[in-house]
Amino acid sequence: MKSRSLSRALVASLALACGALYAQTIDVKDAWVRTSVQGQKATGAFMKITAKDNERLVAVSTPAAGMAGVHQMMLDGDVMKMRPVEGGLALPAGKTVALTPGGYHVMLMDLKAPLVKDSTVPMTLVFKNDKGVQSTVELKVPVSTTGPGVANGMGSDAGGMMMGGHKH
Predict the structure, then answer these.
(1) CB neighbours of 78 closer than 8 A, spacing ≥ 6?
(2) Quick one: what percent of the chain has pLDDT higher than 70?
């Protein structure tokens, strides 16, 4: 019996170590979530993701929202449209993909409560590589009115287009 318990512990330790090594192949920087106000049901999360190998960001979850997913804003003629990214967001090996207001971003919908400045939002990103192997990255994302290094709120905000032109 002791041998079987030791074997299980060893297998579990190896699985954790392999998962940790795999997760280190994805780097997430400058992540932030835009603040929200009472009654606001959606907001965006933004970050820079670099994958060592070809990956796809296939799912996002957070207890702060009923639904979360990767969306893209694009200009269709003179109309700005937002759509979910079907099949996940491609992350080419070694290239940084920026999720920004006005472009690709994580959409948090059906917010459970207002997201206030200087709080954090737990978030899980799920990735899948070319071989179909999934990995997750757990984050605690700071809530802010602007992204990292943006002093006046205009630099990375795309003119406030992300949330219908509202600035809070």
Answers:
(1) none
(2) 74
